[in-house]
């Protein structure tokens, strides 16, 4: 897997014949407020059950990591190192490093080698910016393999739906679109309806267990729910 994810840069050719370099870290929205519906759901659920350790996969500028650290949770934030060359993300990581419960892991090498386990994972606006289909499955499987087997193995997912309307056909790549202009600001975006999202997760062993408020597609999945 590490070879596939060795860089956040993907050199591709769009359906219109343009050769571009997609940088998945361009999708980070530095300065964006945390999804309060997600925060309320995760914090309440974790506190009621006594769970403490959370994975924030693709944490970007740590808009969910830091509020969770403030509430006393241990948070493992995983991101490409390139993301922290951006001033806002760099500043937020420096802030997070002041908390005893914070662990920063570079994707992919640190995460794949690390033996840290977690009870709950956050996957917020991540899958739909990965331009290679098979890598989405690999990512979901990697998260599943590192759940604490004695914990709930619960994943909170957020995505968007409806933003693809009007995106030009000549910017298509695989099952999505290349967005942005210029040499350095290209990113990838795709989206799935609810049934297709559930199908994507189910083939990797996750089953929808509920939803929360505050996103277009705010879904809760559990890994192998039959054995919880």
Can you describe what's shown?
- With 228 residues, the chain is of the alpha/beta class.
- It has one domain (9-227): Vaccinia Virus protein VP39 (Rossmann fold), CATH 3.40.50.
- The protein contains 6 helices and 12 strands.
- It has helices at residues 36-49, 65-70, 87-96, 109-113, 133-145, 194-202; strands spanning 9-13, 19-23, 53-57, 74-79, 102-106, 120-124, 154-159, 172-173, 176-179, 187-189, 206-211, 217-223.
- The strands form 3 sheets. A 7-stranded mixed β-sheet has the order 5-4-3-6-7-12-11.
- β8 and β9 (176-179) form a beta hairpin.
- The longest helix has 14 residues, at 36-49.
- The radius of gyration is 17 Å and the shape is globular.
- The two termini are 28 Å apart.
- The mean pLDDT is 93.
Count of DSSP H/I helices: 6
- Helix proportion: 25-40%
Identify the CATH homologous superfamily. Answer: Vaccinia Virus protein VP39
Count of folded domains: 1
CATH topology: Rossmann fold
Structural class: alpha/beta
- The appropriate CATH architecture is 3-Layer(aba) Sandwich
> What would CATH call the class?
Alpha Beta
From N to C, what is the helix and strand string?
EEHEHEHEHEHEEEEHEE
Rounded radius of gyration (Å): 17 Å
What number is the mean pLDDT?
A: 93
Largest sheet: 7 strands, mixed
Unreliable spans? none
**What is the percentage of strand-forming residues?**
25-35%
Q: State the shape.
A: globular
Termini distance? 28 Å
């Amino acid at each position: 897997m590490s070879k596939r994810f060795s860089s956040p840069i993907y050199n591709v050719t769009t359906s219109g014949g343009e050769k571009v370099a997609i940088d998945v870290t361009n999708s980070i929205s530095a300065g964006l407020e945390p999804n309060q519906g997600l925060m309320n759901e995760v914090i309440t659920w974790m506190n009621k059950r006594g769970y403490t350790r959370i994975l924030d996969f693709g944490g970007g500028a740590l808009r969910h990591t830091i509020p969770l650290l403030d509430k006393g949770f241990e948070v493992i934030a995983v991101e490409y190192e390139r993301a922290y060359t951006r001033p806002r993300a760099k500043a937020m990581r420096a802030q997070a490093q002041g908390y005893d419960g914070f662990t920063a892991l570079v994707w992919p090498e640190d995460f794949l080698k690390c033996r840290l386990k977690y009870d709950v994972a956050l996957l917020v606006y991540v899958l739909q910016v990965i331009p290679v289909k098979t890598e989405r499955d690999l990512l979901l499987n990697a998260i599943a393999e590192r759940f604490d087997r004695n914990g709930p193995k619960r994943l909170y997912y957020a995505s968007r739906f409806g933003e693809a309307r009007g995106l030009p056909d000549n910017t298509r790549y695989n099952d999505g679109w290349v967005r942005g202009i210029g040499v350095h600001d290209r990113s990838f975006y795709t989206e799935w309806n609810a049934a297709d999202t559930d199908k994507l997760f189910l083939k990797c062993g996750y089953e929808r267990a509920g939803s929360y408020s505050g996103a277009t597609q705010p879904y809760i999945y559990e890994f192998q729910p039959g054995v919880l």
